[in-house]
Amino acid sequence: MWKLDLPLKLKIFIWKACNDWIPTLANLERRGLKVNKVCPLCRRAEESTLHALWDCLKMRYARMDWLPKKAVPRSRYANFLEFITDIATRIDNDALRTLCVICWRNWFLRNASIHKDNKPNYSDVVWWSRNFAAKIHASSHVKDKGLLDSSLKGPLQDQLLCYLRYGKLQGGYWSCNPQ
C-alpha cells in the first residue's frame, strides 16, 4: 500500500482502516462508547470497517461498477485487512489505487450522509474515484519523469502539480477536499 501513487492522507486512511482504527460504530462501541452499532445507512448489519467501506448496501454501485472479473471477492471476510489483502493479490496497482480511492470516497460520503444530513449520490463513486486516481497518477508521472519544463520552477511548478493532482483552483486556494 505504501508504494502506491496516493496522497499520504489517503494511505494513512487505508492503514487505519486495515487496523480498524476509523470510527465506525462497531469500533466506537469496542472502545467503550454506548452507541447503536447498526449501520445508519442500510440498517441491515453492524457497521464494521469492512461494512462501512465496502459491504454496505449503499455501496453496491461501487461493487457492481468497479470489480474486475479476476478480483471478485469471496463471499465473506473477517475484516477490512483480509478483504484488501485478498483483492490486492489479484489486481494490478492501478486497480488497487482505484479501490483505495473508492473506499476513501465511500467513507467521505458516509460521513456527509450522517453528519451533514446530505443525500449523497453513491452511483458516481467509481467514476469519481477513477478520475481522482488518474489525476494522482498523472501528477506523480509528470513529477517523477521530469516532464515539467525546466523553466517552471517554484510556485508555477507547484501550481501545475497541484492542478494535476487536485483539479481546479477554488476561491484562490487549491482544494484537496475529495468533493
TrEMBL record:
This is Reverse transcriptase zinc-binding domain-containing protein. It comes from Dipteronia sinensis. InterPro entries: RVT-Znf (IPR026960). Pfam families: zf-RVT. Residues 1-58 form the Reverse transcriptase zinc-binding domain.
